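1st attempt posting a full record on here, be nice pls
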Amino acid sequence: MQIGGRTVIWTKEDDDGCFASFMSQKAIVHSSYRTTSAGTPSAGLAEECRIAIAFATLAISKAP
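the predicted structure (as tokens):
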């Protein structure tokens, strides 16, 4: 997916989280959101992935 002109990759982590990553200069920036052990993951991890992508979107707006 493209966000702010950058390629963002995202994937589910195990059965309780999601992460989104993008390049900024020579670094890889990761955003991750996981359900705590006390929480219940959303169906298909849709909410966890939405939050990880939202964090990445904010980071992209500030990244060099």
